[in-house]
Amino acid sequence: MNLDFSAEDLAFRDEVRTFIAENYPASLRGKQDEGDELSKEDFLSWHKVLAKKGWVAPAWPVEYGGTGWSQTQRYIWSEETARADCIRLMPFGLAMVGPVIYAFGTPEQKAHFLPRILSGDDWWCQGYSEPGAGSDLASLRTKAVRDGDDYVVNGQKTWTTMAQHADWGFFLVRTDPDAKMQEGISFLLIDMKSPGIQVRPIITLGGEHEVNEVFLDNVRVPVSNRVYEENKGWTCAKFLLAHERVGIAGVASSKRGVEKIKAIAATEMDGDRSLLANPFFKRKVAELEIDLAALEYTELRTLAGMAAGNNPGPESSVLKIKGSEIQQRLTELTLEMAGHYGAPYFRGFGAGDNEHPIGQEWANRAAPTYFNARKTTIYGGSNEIQRNVIAKMVLGL
Amino acid sequence: MDLSTTETQTMLRDTLARFLADTYTFDARQKMLASPEGRDPGIWRALSSELGLTCAPFAEEMGGMGGGAIENQIMMEELGKVIAIEPWVQTIVAGGGALKAAGGPLAEATIPAIIAGDCVIAFAYAEPQGRYNLADIGTTAKQDGAGYVLNGHKGVVYAAPWATHLLVTARTGGSRREREGVELFLIDAKAKGISRRDYPTVDGFRASEVYFENVAIPGEALLTGGIDLIEKVVDECTVAICAEATGIGRAMLAQTQDYAGQRKQFGQPISKFQVLQHRMADMLVEAEQIASMALMGTLRLDEPAAARKAAVSMVKAKVARSIKFIGQNAIQTHGGIGITVELAIGHYFKRATMIENQFGSADYHLERFEALTYAA
Predict the structure, then answer these.
(1) The CATH number of B123-224 is which of 1.10.1760.20, 3.40.50.720, 2.40.110.10, 3.40.50.2000?
(2) CB-based contact, B261 to chain A, within 8 Å
(3) What is the pLDDT of residues B280-336, one digit of tens each?
(4) N- or C-end of chain B: fewer Cβ atoms within 10 A?
(5) Domain final residue, candidates A89, A109, A138
C-alpha cells in the first residue's frame, strides 16, 4: 500500500502540466485574475480546448468518450487543474446527465446527446428543486401527463443553476400522482427552447445571477426524451446524487485556496508582522490545512474503494459535509484578511480607476464570495440531509 | 443595582421603534439603497429636527437631553432591528462623542448643528495599511502658521459621501505606528484639496476612499486628546455597533423562527425537527450573550482607559463570534432562499458580517484584551 506515483504517473503529470500551460485560454486567465464574472463563452472556451484534446470527461467509460485514465491519473488531473487555477467545468452535462444517459439511456439518446455534451454544443441545467421541494426532493409536484407521443409538463422548478444559458435541462417530474413519494417520478430531458418555458433570474447576496426559477406551462416533451422507465426516475436521481457528492469534496481546489491564503497572509501586514506571523491567524490556517488533509485522505480512500469496484455509498456524505465546511472556512479567512476592505462592494461600478484603487484586488470579492459560499452547506443535499443519510444508511439508526 | 431604563429612555426607544416600523420596511430600505444618494435624507431630518432623537446623548447646555452611552445603546439597538443605514455611529457616537470629550468652541458650535440634523459626520480613521491599529497612520497634519495642512489617504470611510464634516485622524509628529503625534481633527468635508472615490458597501451603506492633498485647516479643527481620545471614541463606536448587533441578532432569530414555522418539508414545518430546534435555541443563547455584552460595554465606557479598553475588547470579541454564529445559522436554516436578495434575512446577514470586523476583529480584540489583562 502506498501513494507513490509510478514513473508513468509522473510522466503523465508532466504531460498534463505542459498541456495546461500551453493551452489554457489566456483570455480566461485574465478574467480570473481580474475577478471578472465569467460568461457562457468563457466557460466554454476551456471546455472546447479539452474536448478537442479528448480530455473533457475523464470519468466516462472509454466507449462513450472517456479517457481511460486510472484513478491515479484522474487524481493527478484534478490536482493539476486546481494547481493551475483552471476553472471548473460546468458539471450539469459532464458530471450529471451524461453519466445518467450512458448508464440508463436508450441507444438513440446516447448517440444523440453524449457527443453534444462532450463537444459543448449543448449547455445543460438541472431541474430538480421546487419551491416546496428542496431537502424533501421527493415531494416534487411538477407533473407530466401523457398525451399521445408527448408528455405535457406543468410546474415550477427553482435554484436552477445557469438555466439562463441552457439549451437542455434534465427534469424530475411526477408521472403518477397516486404513487408513493419516490415512486411515480420520471426523468425527462427537456429542450429549454420549447414553447411554455420561462426562466426568471434569482439574484444572490453577492449580486450574482447564477440561479433561476424555471416555469413550465404546458410544455410538450416527446416520450422519447424520457430516460429509463416511466415512474422509475428516482433510480436515475439517486445514481446522480451519489455522483454529485463525490466531486463536491472539492479537495484540489480547496488546497489551492489554502495556498492562496498563505501567500496573501505572508505579505499582508498586521502591524510590524505579517498576518501569517499573527499567531491567531496562523493557527486558523493551520487547522484548516489539517482538516483538509484529513478530507483528502478520506477522499483517496473512497476513490480507492471505487477503483476496487465499490460504489460510492452513503460514505460520500462525509465528503460533502467536510468539503463544504472547508470551502466556507476558506472564504471566512479571506474575508478576515481583507480587514476594512471587506466592506466595499464592487459590482457594477467604476472599474478601471487605477489611480485610486479600493484596497487590494484579492480583497475585492472577499465578502460576496463568503456570502455565496453559504450555499455549499445547502445545495447538493443540505448538510442536515447528509447527516440524515449517515444516521440512517451508515449507522442504521 | 438597577438595570431598568428611565421613563425618558423607554419613551425614546418607543418613539424610534414606531418611526422605524413605519419608514424602514424592507421595500423602503431597498429603495433607499438603490437611489442615487443611497439613502433617504428625510429620515435623518426626521430623527433630528422632527423627533428630536439626536439630542438624546448630549448635555442639556448644548441643547441635549443630558443622556450618553445608554441612549446611544438604545438607539443603536432599534436601528439594528431594521438594519438602518443612518449615520448614527459616525455622526452622534464618533463625532458627537469626540466633541463632547474635547469641549471648547468647536464643540459649542457644532453640537447644536448635529442635534438639528444640519451636520453629518464621517469618521476617517482607517488607512489601507493600518488594519485595526489606530496609530498606524500615514496621513500627516503639518503645522502651518496657526493652522495645519493635511495630506494622506483614508480608507473605507463610511458615510463620507453624505457628510458635511470629516472626523480625521492624522499625524502631527512621530513615526508610523507611534502613539505620540496622532491627533484628531474635525474638518469641513468640502474643504479644498479633499477628493473622494465613493462606492456602496456590501452592507448597504455608502463609503469612500478619501484623499487629502494640501488641505489647509484652521487650528481650531484640532480636538485635543491625541491617541487616548481616538481610542476612547473608537471604543464608544465599538460598543455602539455591538448594541446594533443586539437588534440584528434578535431580528435574525425572529425571522428564522418565523420561517421555520412556515416552511414545510417531509410533511411538517421544519421547526418541528429537533436539530433545528436546538440550533435556534443556541441562536437565542448567543443573542442573549450579545445583549449582555453590549450592556457591559455601555456601562463600562466611563472607566479609566485601561479598564475600559479591556472591557470593550471583551465585548467585541464575544459579539463578533456570536453574531457570526447567529447569521450563519439563520442562513442555513432558511436554506437557498436565505442566500437571495429577495428575503430580508440575507441583508441582515450582510450587515452582521460587517459588524464582525468593524472597529477590530475578534482576534484583534482578544489580543488587546490579553495584552491589557494577562501579565506576561
Answers:
(1) 2.40.110.10
(2) no
(3) 999 999 999 999 999 999 999 999 999 999 999 999 999 999 999 999 999 999 999
(4) N
(5) A89
Question: What ipTM, to 2 d.p.?
Answer: 0.96
Best residue in B363, B368, B369 to probe A by mutation, most A CBs within 10 Å? B363
Residues of A in contact with B359 (CB under 8 A): none
Cα distance between residue A317 and residue A373, in whole Å? 18
Q: Which domain holds residue A17?
A: 7-89
Pick the residue from chain B with its C-alpha nearest to A355.
Answer: B197
- Closest CB to A340: pick one of B156, B197, B332: B156
Q: Is residue A240 part of a domain?
A: no
Please indicate whether, in this complex, the C-beta atoms of A269 and B133 are within 8 angstroms of each other: no
A-contacting residues in B 288-347 (Cβ below 8 Å): 328, 331-332, 335-336, 338-342, 346
Could you tell me the three cell numbers for B81? Answer: 432591528
Tell me the backbone φ, ψ of residue B7, rounded to 5 degrees. Answer: -60, -40
The reply to whether the predicted model has a pTM over 0.90 is: yes
Cell numbers describing residue B324? 457570526
Residue B32 to residues B24, B119, B200, B335, B343, Cα–Cα distance (Å): 10, 20, 12, 27, 16
Mean pLDDT (whole number) for A15-30: 94
**A180: burial class by Cβ within 10 Å (0-12, 13-18, 19+)?**
exposed
Q: Alpha helix locations (H) across B173-304?
A: 226-262, 274-299
A205 part of a folded domain: yes
Options 3.10.450.50, 1.10.540.10, 3.40.190.10, 3.40.50.11890; CATH for B7-87+105-118 is: 1.10.540.10
A108: exposed, middle or buried (C-beta count within 10 Å: 0-12, 13-18, 19+)? Answer: exposed
Angle among Cα B325, B326, B327 to the nearest 5 degrees reads 95
Residues in chain B closer than 8 A to A397 (CB atoms)? none
Q: Give the closest of B156, B199, B336 to A378, CB-based.
A: B336
Residue A306 Cα distances to A248, A331, B180, B351, angstroms = 16, 31, 65, 45
Shortest distance between the Cα of A202 and any Cα of chain B, in A, equals 7
Residue A179 CB-half CA count within 13 A? 19
Instruction: Give the C-alpha separation, B346 to A332, whole Å.
Output: 16
| Topology adopted by domain B227-373 | Butyryl-CoA Dehydrogenase, subunit A; domain 3 (1.20.140)
* Dist. CA B153–CA B125, nearest whole Å: 10
Alpha helix segments (H runs only) across chain B: 7-23, 26-34, 41-45, 69-81, 88, 97-102, 105-116, 226-262, 274-299, 305-334, 344-357, 362-373
The beta-carbon neighbor of A202 closest among B156, B202, B340 is B340
Strands B194-200, B222-223: pairing kind = unpaired
B278 touches chain A (CB under 8 A): no
State pLDDT tens for residues B255-277.
999 999 999 999 999 999 999 99
Identify the CA nearest to B242 among candidates B370, B89, B363.
Answer: B89
